[in-house]
Amino acid sequence: MNILLLGSGGREHAFAWKIASSPKCGKLFVAPGNAGTAAIAENVAIAVTDFEKLAQFCTDQSVDMMVVGPEEPLVKGIVDYFKNNPAVAHIPVVGPSQKGAQLEGSKDFSKQFMQRHGIPTAASKTFTKDSLEEGIAYLQSQGLPIVLKADGLAAGKGVLICQTYEEATESLKEMLVDAKFGDASSKVVIEQFLQGIELSVFVATDATSYRILPEAKDYKRIGEQDTGLNTGGMGAVSPVPFADGSFLKKVAERVVIPTIKGLEMENIPYTGFLFIGLMNMNGDPYVIEYNVRMGDPETEAVLPRIKSDFVDLLFSMGTLHLDEYQLEIHSHTATTVVMVAGGYPGAYEKGHEITGLTSIADPAKAIAFHAGTTTGTKGEVLTNGGRVIAVTGLGESMEEALNHAYEAVNHINWKDQYHRRDIGQDLKIYH
Which of 98, 168, 369, 407 has the CB geometry, 3.0–4.6 Å to 13, for a possible disulfide? Predict the structure, then answer.
């Protein structure tokens, strides 16, 4: 099969790596890709939101399937564009419809969806600029800390956890009146703070059948011991030691099944991945948020654990035959450590040469996924983003996987490189 994968991050390099390893993959194209995908596929200089050019490319290159990595093209309706374009309507696209993508594209839509289908989540209310005073009054009536969420896409930065009423009031004004997150915060969801431990559960679905993929826990803050600013993710661990069989059974019964049935009942076409951000509160799952694609950096820890053919999984989703797919999972642990540019998530420099990537020789121990890289004029690998490299270590235990990850991290370097040294340490109490 000729396959086109959209995106340029660590998630997409992990997808490309997994797709390329399948005998079902013929030619693999990645638009726009990065230095890592360039080594295993053909990068194509087309933006993920240039639907017209992508459709033309699929026609010209006889593409048999398209896989959408990031959320932006999904929220902007790429799946509907392909379905409604006779030239490419026959190509299976892995990703939900624009209506389905609202589960991530609008926090308000997703909260209302959860309420309609009895899916456990935090109590919340949504406000706009016109109802600012009501929003402030609502804040005062809630306990602390309190969570403010920009309704739209804000590149993972639109969620604020406020410790005082003053901070919450100020932040609400900044979001609604000063458009702190642009259009994304024209509506703000004020939500009860859930106390517990977070994890992510990933679901593959073709709108009727589903398969639950390995779960993961990610580390969002820049500083060790979960301090400092939120980032797109500084590391991940899979499996999650506290997510035992009985907890995951509750997740399936209370969250996954009602979500899939709810989408079907509301006639929302949903083919693709669903990432459910959960809080484990005393053994009960509560949904923090939905995302309509795989997580990053969780993908880099989840995909190495999938044993069965990944192209088969994608194609069975895209062609609505997921009920026939047998998902097999490796028992080993995968741990991911993200290496970032100095200054991230604030201002950072690009264009620094990365050394030591070739020293990672054994893919059974560690894999370096490129997250924000590009190729220089002499073929050297340069930094091109905030999160630059995601190193995944593999092992029979979490400890062994972490040792392999950090061993590899210690070989890779560039000017002002930074990474957290405590990924997975909080989970040792469960071993």
Answer: 369
